[in-house]
Design a protein that fits this description.
heterodimer; A: 516 residues; alpha/beta; Aspartate Aminotransferase, domain 1; three-stranded antiparallel beta sheet; 10% strand; globular; B: 463 residues; Aspartate Aminotransferase, domain 2; 3 domains; seven-stranded mixed beta sheet; 12 strands
Chain lengths: 516, 463
C-alpha cells in the first residue's frame, strides 16, 4: 500500500444508530408549549372561533411526543452524521461548487433586520435590504457584462426556466412564436436546461460532445434553422473543457434569429476572467448557492439570478427594484413582464450573503477565486491521472488545461477489477471524505467521476483526496471485495440491495407494511 | 495575475508558497497559462465595476450591518401582516439546529456520509404525511406557488387533460405564479362568494366537465377563509376523473381536518410557518404531498426519499426513490423543472413538528383561532370599520374594510408604520371588490394586550 500523509486508516464516522423520531415518542411528553389564550378573550368570543364541524380535525394526528432535550439531542446527533463542507472534504461533489460559506454572512442574516422582516412591509422600512439587493444586481452586471438582473427565481433550474420563458416571449412579440419552437443545448450541459426548456414548451435538440469534449461547430450548424428559438448552454461544461469557439456559436445562432442563453450556474472557473457579454450571450443565470458561497443546506438554500441585455429587460419577472437616487422602491407595473416565478423578491437572505461575499473579495479577490479554482483543479487533475485505473475524459484528444472541474473515468479500473464507480463512491467515505458525483445524465463517459476543488480548498485537502483515491484504487486491484462491499466505517452499513425496490416513503407506510 | 501580496482567508492557495508548489508540480509557468483555452477575444480585461471591498471581517460586518439597519424590524407582537409570509414564533431549538454547520453546509452527498440529513428529510416527509394524511411527501419546492404549479402540472399529465379550475381566492402571488409557470394550460378562474370567499359552487359546476384535469382549492385560502365545501368539491372532481388538489398552511392542521380525509389527491402548501423566520421572504419553501398511487407519484418531478434497510439488522439509510422520474434523468422528457430547492427549511420544519407534537399543534391552532377571532371582533367594533366576510369561518387571517371611514388603506398603513405597527396587506389593488380593505394576520405572537393596542391605534388612525 502507498505511503500516506493525510489518509486516516483508523477513521470511523459517527454512528449513533439514531432511532427515527417516532421511536423516541412517549405518550404525553412535550417538546414546547404554545401560549394559551387569555380567559378574558375566551369570555368575549363565545364559540364563534370554532372550526365548522365539517372541517374540524377528527382524524388522530400522529406526531411524535418528545421532551425538548431529546428533540435537540436527536437532531444534533443526526447533524453529527453529515459530512457538511464545514466538517469534511467535499471536493467530490463536482458541479455543485462546494466552497466555504463565510460564517460572518450567517451572522449578518440572523440580524433581526433580515430574519424578522416581512417582504411586503412598507417599502420605507425595507430600504436596507433593497439597497443590498440592488447593489448585488449592479455587481452581477459587472461580472457578467449583461445589463439587468433579477433574483426572484428560487434556484438555478427556476432561473433557467425564467430565461427560457423570456426567450419564448421575445419570439412571440416578434410574431415568430409559432415558428421558433426549438432550443438547442448540449448533452453535457446541466439537465435543467433541457427540462426547463421543455417546461416552457420548447422542443429540445441535444448536441453530443465531439472528440475535443465539446460539440463540434458543424453539429451546431446542422441544428440551427429558422425554427431555432435559442441556444442554452454551459461553457465550460461539466467536463471542465472550455469551448473556444463559443463566439462563433453565438454568432451562428444570432444569424439564424435565435437568442443565446449562458448557463453560468457554476461560474467559478471564469468569474472575473471571461464574461457572458464578450461571448455574445443575450441572457445568463448564476446560482448564488454555487459561485457566490451560499451554503447548500443539504439540497437548498437555492437562489437564482437571471441577467439579460437591455432589449430583454421588459420581460424580467416582477417586481423590479428601482432607485431614484434617494429611495429604493418596487415596481409592479410591468405589462411585458413574464410574471412571477416565486413570491416576493426571491431568496433574500441568500442575496445578502452573496453581496457580503463579493464585498469581502472585491475585484482582485473575485479574479483570484477563478485563478485558484483553476490551479487547484489542474493540480488535482494531474495527480488523479496518475492513479492506476483512472483517466481524464476526452484526453488526449483535448490536452488543454481544464477549467474549474474535471470529469474522469474509472473504465480501466472497472475492466481490470470489476469494481465500478458506484462501489468507489461508497468506499471513499470509509476514509472520512464525502462521496463524489459521477456525472449528470446521460453518461457521456464510462464509469464517470467528477471532482471540483474550488478556491476554498487547500493543497492539503486535495492531497488527502488523492491519497484516498490512490488507496481505493490499490484496494480495487488487490482486494476488490473490500471496495464492493463498502462502506465499512460509515454511519451505516451498506444497503441491502433488496430494499431498493419500492421503498416506503414515510414512516407510516413502513409501519403499515411491517404489520402486514 | 495572482497578486503575490494578497492572501485571502477564504482562498488558502493564494499563499505564494502553495501556488508555486502546485504550479511546479503540474509543470505550468504561471496561473495565466492555465487559461490558454480561453481565447483573447473572450478574455475580459476591464473593470468589473465592483465597489471597494472590505477584506477585514470587522469592516465587512460593520458596513453591511449598517446598511441592513436601514430596515425596520417590527416587534413580532406588532406585526399583523401575513398573506404568504407570516410572523410565527421560532423555537430556540429550531435556531440551534439551523446553526449546525453540518446540515447547513452539506449538499445531498452520499446516503452513507450524510445519513443524518437524509434521515431528517425522511422524518419531515413522515410528519407532513401525518399532518396531511397523504402517504407520500417529496422534497420541498421553492415556495407554495411553485408547489401548486407542480401539483397542477402533475394533474395534467395524470389525466392527459389541460383545463384546470382555480378559485379567485388564492391571492396575487400564487395566481401570477400559476399563470407564469404552467404552459399549455387552460386556466378557468372560479368565482368566489363575496360574503365568505368560498367557492361559488354554481360557477364551479358550470365549469366542470370531462376535460378538466384538476380542481385546486386552498384551505385556508389567501384571504384567510376556510373552504367548508371541500368534500363536495373533491367529489365533483372525482366524478369527472379530475385530480383534487388542496393548498394548506400546515400550521392549521392540528385543528383543521387533514385534506386526505376529504379525498385530496395532492396537497401543496407553505413550510415557512413551521419554525422558520420570515427573512424578508427568504424563509419560504413549498410542501408537496400525494396519495401513494403509482399514477400520481410517478409524475412527481421532485425527489422523494425512500427508507432503505442496510445489511445491519434494524439499521436504516435512505435514498432517492424516484431519481428516474426527476428531470435529472428525464431531461427534456420532463415537463417540469427542479433543482436545488430549500431543503434546509424542511429539516427545520421537521424539528418544529417534533417539538410541537400532536398536542402542541392542536393548542397552537386553537390559540390562533381564538386570538384572531377576538382581534376581528375588536377591529369590527371600530366606527366605520367592517368585516366583509363577518360570518365566514377563517384561520389566522381576515379581511377588514374601512370604506366608511373615508380613508385609504395606503394612508392608514403608512401612519401605522410610523407608529410602529406592520399593518395588514393592502387588498385595494389585488381585490378591488372589497373596496379599501386589508388582510390582517393574528398569530400566537399576539396576546390580548397586543391586539387591544393595535385595535386602539387603528381606531385613532381611521377616525
Amino acid at each position: 500500500m502507498s505511503k500516506s500523509k493525510y489518509l486516516n486508516e483508523n477513521f470511523q464516522q459517527t454512528r449513533w444508530a439514531e432511532n427515527i423520531i417516532y421511536e423516541h415518542s412517549i405518550d404525553g411528553d412535550r417538546g414546547i408549549l404554545p401560549p394559551k389564550t387569555e380567559p378574558e378573550i375566551l369570555s368575549e368570543i363565545d364559540e364563534s372561533w370554532e372550526i365548522p364541524s365539517s372541517l374540524k380535525r377528527k382524524s388522530k394526528l400522529n406526531l411524535p411526543e418528545v421532551a425538548q432535550l431529546y428533540v435537540l439531542r436527536h437532531y444534533t446527533r443526526l447533524s453529527q452524521m453529515v459530512f457538511g463542507n464545514n466538517v469534511a472534504n467535499n471536493i467530490g461533489l463536482a458541479t455543485a461548487t462546494m466552497k466555504y460559506s463565510p460564517l460572518v454572512n450567517e451572522n449578518l442574516v440572523r440580524m433581526k433586520q433580515v430574519a424578522e422582516i416581512h417582504p411586503e412591509q412598507d417599502v420605507r422600512t425595507l430600504q436596507g435590504i433593497l439597497e443590498i439587493i440592488y447593489n448585488l444586481e449592479q455587481a452581477l452586471k459587472g461580472i457578467s457584462g449583461l445589463d439587468h438582473f433579477c433574483m426572484q427565481p428560487g434556484g438555478g433550474a427556476a432561473a433557467i426556466f425564467t430565461n427560457a420563458k423570456i426567450v419564448k416571449r421575445y419570439h412571440e412579440d416578434r410574431g415568430e412564436g409559432d415558428q421558433r419552437t426549438q432550443i438547442i443545448t448540449t448533452l453535457n450541459s446541466h439537465p435543467a436546461n433541457a427540462a426547463a426548456a421543455s417546461s416552457a414548451g420548447f422542443e429540445v435538440i441535444h448536441l453530443p460532445p465531439g472528440p475535443a469534449g465539446y460539440p463540434d461547430i458543424e453539429a451546431l450548424k446542422a441544428a440551427v434553422s429558422d425554427e431555432t428559438a435559442g441556444l442554452m448552454t454551459t461553457n465550460p461544461e461539466d467536463t471542465g473543457l472550455f469551448n473556444p469557439e463559443i463566439k462563433e456559436w453565438t454568432n451562428l445562432v444570432h444569424k439564424a434569429g435565435g437568442l443565446c442563453v449562458h448557463d453560468q450556474a457554476n461560474a467559478n472557473g471564469v468569474i472575473g476572467i471571461a464574461r457572458s457579454r464578450e461571448a455574445g450571450f443575450d441572457l445568463c443565470h448564476f446560482n448564488l448557492h454555487k459561485t457566490f458561497s451560499i451554503p447548500h443546506g443539504s439540497y437548498g438554500g437555492g437562489a437564482g439570478a437571471v441577467g439579460v441585455r437591455d432589449d430583454l429587460e421588459r420581460y424580467l419577472p416582477k417586481p423590479r427594484i428601482t432607485f431614484d437616487g434617494e429611495q429604493f422602491d418596487l415596481d409592479f407595473d410591468l405589462p411585458d413582464s413574464i410574471g412571477t416565478v416565486r413570491s416576493y423578491l426571491g431568496n433574500t437572505q441568500a442575496q445578502v450573503k452573496a453581496f457580503a461575499w463579493i464585498m469581502a473579495l472585491g475585484e482582485k479577490g473575485i479574479r483570484q477565486v477563478a485563478e485558484i479554482a483553476v490551479l487547484n483543479n489542474n493540480y488535482l487533475t494531474k495527480k488523479i491521472a496518475e492513479i492506476k485505473g483512472a483517466s481524464i475524459s476526452f484526453y488526449p484528444d483535448n490536452t488543454d488545461w481544464r477549467i474549474e472541474q474535471t470529469r474522469f473515468s474509472w473504465k480501466d479500473l472497472n475492466r481490470d477489477t470489476g469494481v465500478d464507480t458506484e462501489d468507489i463512491r461508497n468506499r471513499v467515505v470509509d476514509y472520512g471524505i464525502q462521496t463524489y458525483w459521477p456525472s449528470h445524465h446521460p453518461y457521456t463517459v464510462a464509469q464517470p467521476f467528477s471532482l471540483e476543488p474550488t478556491e476554498s480548498v487547500s493543497k492539503a485537502d486535495i492531497d488527502e483526496l488523492i491519497e484516498v483515491f490512490t488507496r481505493v484504487s490499490e484496494e480495487s486491484y488487490e482486494t476488490p471485495e473490500v471496495v464492493q462491499n463498502a462502506p465499512h466505517k460509515s454511519s451505516t452499513a451498506a444497503v441491502n440491495p433488496n430494499s431498493f425496490a419500492d421503498p416506503p416513503m414515510s414512516w407510516r407506510v413502513y409501519q403499515r407494511r411491517r404489520v402486514t | 495575475m495572482a497578486d503575490k501580496e494578497f492572501v485571502h482567508p477564504y482562498i488558502p492557495n493564494t499563499n505564494p508558497t502553495s501556488t508555486a508548489a502546485m504550479l511546479e508540480e503540474i509543470g505550468a509557468s504561471s496561473i495565466e497559462e492555465l487559461f490558454q483555452s480561453i481565447p483573447d477575444h473572450l478574455r475580459y480585461q476591464g473593470s468589473l465595476g465592483l465597489p471597494k471591498p472590505y477584506p477585514s471581517e470587522i469592516e465587512l460586518r460593520r458596513n453591511i450591518a449598517k446598511t441592513l439597519e436601514n430596515n425596520i424590524s417590527f416587534e413580532p407582537h406588532r406585526n399583523f401582516r401575513g398573506g404568504g409570509c407570516w410572523q410565527h414564533y421560532v423555537p430556540s431549538v429550531c435556531d440551534e439546529i439551523l446553526s449546525r454547520g453540518e446540515f447547513l453546509t452539506a449538499y445531498t452527498g452520499s446516503r452513507h456520509a450524510n445519513v443524518g440529513s437524509f434521515q431528517a428529510q425522511f422524518e419531515f416527509q413522515s410528519m407532513i404525511s401525518e399532518l396531511t394524511d397523504m402517504d407520500v411527501v417529496s422534497y420541498v419546492t421553492y415556495d407554495w406557488g411553485s408547489a401548486a404549479r407542480t401539483a397542477l402540472g402533475m394533474a395534467q399529465r395524470i389525466t392527459q387533460r389541460c383545463k384546470i379550475l382555480v378559485p379567485k381566492n388564492i391571492g396575487p402571488w400564487r395566481s401570477s405564479q400559476i399563470e407564469t409557470l404552467l404552459f399549455n394550460s387552460d386556466i378557468v378562474w372560479i368565482d368566489i362568494d363575496p360574503t365568505s370567499s368560498q367557492i361559488d359552487m354554481n360557477n364551479l359546476r358550470d365549469a366542470m366537465g370531462p376535460d378538466v384535469a384538476a380542481i385546486y382549492i386552498e384551505n385556508p385560502c389567501y384571504l384567510g377563509n376556510l373552504e367548508t365545501q371541500a368534500e363536495a368539491i373533491g367529489a365533483l372532481a372525482h366524478e369527472q376523473g379530475a385530480i383534487f388538489i388542496v393548498g394548506v398552511d400546515p400550521l392549521s392542521l392540528g385543528v383543521v381536518e387533514a385534506p386526505g380525509t376529504y379525498e385530496a389527491d395532492i396537497v401543496c402548501g407553505t413550510v415557512q410557518t413551521l419554525g422558520i423566520h420570515m427573512f424578508a421572504g427568504g424563509g419560504l419553501a413549498g410542501l408537496l404531498a400525494m396519495r401513494d398511487e403509482e399514477r400520481i407519484k410517478t409524475e412527481c418531478p421532485w425527489p422523494i426519499l425512500g427508507l432503505l434497510e442496510t445489511q445491519q439488522k434494524n439499521e436504516f439509510t435512505f435514498g432517492w426513490a424516484n431519481f428516474n422520474r426527476t428531470p435529472y434523468e428525464l431531461r427534456d422528457e420532463s415537463e417540469d423543472f427542479i433543482g436545488t430547492g430549500q431543503t434546509i427549511w424542511a429539516i427545520i420544519a421537521g424539528v418544529y413538528l417534533a417539538l410541537m407534537g400532536p398536542k402542541g399543534m392542536q393548542e397552537i391552532g386553537e390559540t390562533i383561532l381564538q386570538r384572531s377571532h377576538y382581534a376581528a371582533k375588536k377591529i369590527a367594533a371600530i366606527p366605520g370599520v367592517t368585516l366583509p366576510m363577518e360570518n365566514a369561518a377563517f384561520f389566522k387571517e381576515f379581511v377588514v374594510n374601512i370604506d366608511d371611514t373615508g380613508k385609504k388603506i395606503s394612508t392608514v398603513n403608512a401612519e401605522l408604520t410610523d407608529l410602529g405597527f406592520n399593518s395588514g396587506t393592502d387588498l385595494s389593488k389585488s381585490y378591488p371588490r372589497f373596496g379599501q380593505a386589508m388582510l390582517v394576520a393574528v398569530t400566537e405572537c399576539h396576546n390580548k394586550e397586543d391586539i387591544d393596542t393595535f385595535a386602539l391605534t387603528l381606531e385613532k388612525v381611521v377616525s
